[in-house]
């Protein structure tokens, strides 16, 4: 990012050690700069799902840098994930034909359940694969593979935890960090929100805010995808030898398996 330093920008790296994202300032104006962002960011900005995109530039290194308006604000609290605003924004994302068309034009194909299951089965370390709760989760996945048509798939975020929801000081709600975006069953997002943040007795109410009823098929699909994501997180933390977090996700898997036992 020497290009921007030479032009008098002040850059503060954010978001970890990769130094791909920066809080940037020049002449009193503040921006969020990011290197090599997907062209998908343009559509997300137009749809009002992320802060407004100001410009996109290719610098001398060949990298593409995007600038968005910097928004002062905070991430959502866990208790706020039960709000109508979260439900409505998720519905907007899952319903957007513009978002879907953009990812299709970028060559993305639907991530069907069979592909997710195969990815899980081939990526687990022997240690994770041997854990009895993980084995029980995989058995459930193998026995309950959802049967969905690719035409049913929509744009999904893939990591809807509360850290990725930004509430600006102007009371604007955004969902950020779209690196894991996919075309998939919307239940992959819905399940993680409901199992993680919403009491089971309030699922029907939350989904009514989202705009669809809670039926047996949706319950089963949400449980299936949530187990997929939970196993993925167990492996992610095991790879990094962060065993406390790994064990927390194993406990999460156990909770999911034992909640809503009728599906």
TrEMBL record:
The keyword Transferase applies. The lineage of its organism: Bacteria, Bacillati, Bacillota, Bacilli, Bacillales. Signal peptide: none annotated. It comes from Phocicoccus pinnipedialis. This is Phosphotransferase enzyme family protein. InterPro entries: Aminoglycoside_PTrfase, CcrZ_PhaseVar_Mediator, Kinase-like_dom_sf. Keywords: Transferase. It comes from the Bacteria. Residues 17-224 form the Aminoglycoside phosphotransferase domain.
